[in-house]
Amino acid sequence: MSDVLEGRCLCGAVKIQVKGRYDPRAGACHCRMCQRWTGGLFLCFEAAAEAVTVEGPVTRYPSTAFAERAFCSTCGSHLWMRDTDREDTGYDLMPGLFDEALAWPLRSEIYADRAMAAVRLEGDHKRTTRDEYEAQNPFIDGDV
Question: Domain CENP-V/GFA, which positions (predicted)?
Fold first, then answer.
């Protein structure tokens, strides 16, 4: 997708523009770290690093040795999760920041076997269990 997306946090202090490559489908994660961060379910969409422009007060939290989570310093809205071990790593942006995301389908679900009962997702999207995901990503320490 190559349209321009404009999103903002709850208070409007942080504005995010995506201009260029992004995937207009949401991915879901049910790992314990994401459950703690969001209160239940982490949703994101992927955008290339060079496509993303951010303005406003952002706090970055190093949630693991290889990734950060970011939020608005004013209102606390979650903004993204991003790997930090490479400079060219794109963003996993929160779709709720962007009005266009209301129509986007679900692309995939990871840690599907760890979903809280209240947020189990229906549909025929790709599902990956904890064991399957961690076997494909050996750098994860198993604590998520």
Answer: 5-105
